[in-house]
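Known limitations

Structure tokens in this collection are predictions and should be treated as such. Users comparing against experimental data should check residue numbering before alignment. To illustrate the layout, the record for Riboflavin biosynthesis protein is reproduced below. The input appears on top and the generated tokens appear beneath it.
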Amino acid sequence: MQRWRGLEDIPQDWGRSVVTIGSYDGVHRGHQLIIGRAVERARELGIPSVVVTFDPHPSEVVRPGSHPPLLAPHHRRAELMAELGVDAVLILPFTAEFSKLSPADFIVKVLVDKLHARVVIEGPNFRFGHKAAGDVAFLAELGATYDYEVEVVDLYVTGEAGGGEPFSSTLTRRLVAEGDVEGAAEILGRPHRVEGVVVRGAQRGRELGYPTANVETLPHTAIPADGVYAGWLTAAGERMPAAISVGTNPQFDGTERTVEAYAIDRVGLDLYGLHVAVDFLAYVRGQQKFESIDALLEAIADDVKRCRELTSGR
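Generated tokens:
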């Protein structure tokens, strides 16, 4: 899959393509429907499929300080899109100047002049251009002028976790923030993932007999609510069952919120400096401060047992 950053990276001899545009944070099941349809149409027509997305999130430029928590960094989104069969991903730097493009100018500058769109696939709520003035009706209207088709893909409705709402990144972020990682996984189609580099912490886990990987998460990461979770720790290509702790470590009067993962039944791991991924499978319990270290150790043993059971055979 080709990856471009900015319009200038697009090959000058690029021909017609099927295009879909959006932030696509999380590449959840609604996004998968749209992207999957773009790939399908591209194959039918014998031309490439292209996903156009933005960095940073448009809200951060339009309303500084409002950057939403991210469900997936751009490299992870690209991986997920490649798995769906996408031929190219274009990340457009979203600047104040870019945000002022009118819907018509956006269409000409991106879809017509550079990507030579043959078909554009979008969800029903797609908005674009200055002050989000453009919608799918306007996109289709200009398609008659610039020789491209527009196809709208309806988003499926979530189950019980989502309360019957359409699949959305906003809903997924809320579920993650509430600690409902199983509900989030229903929308994502996979467990929610947090990534970062393993750094040295206070090493209390090692002292207690449960050495943890202290993950320095990427900026704006959507981190689940404080508590203990079952999941997996992936490092150097190896996926290991894990007991995951999120919070401030109140047992030792901590103040900084951290994500720490204990690779269950693994001894002698040295993960410092490695970029790792932590996948959240299920909520186990909330963050607590215990009466004694012995009570804490008993709780940790129970947590590890529960996490081992939840991840077994998964």
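For this record: The mean pLDDT is 92. The longest helix spans residues 293-311. Please report discrepancies through the issue tracker.
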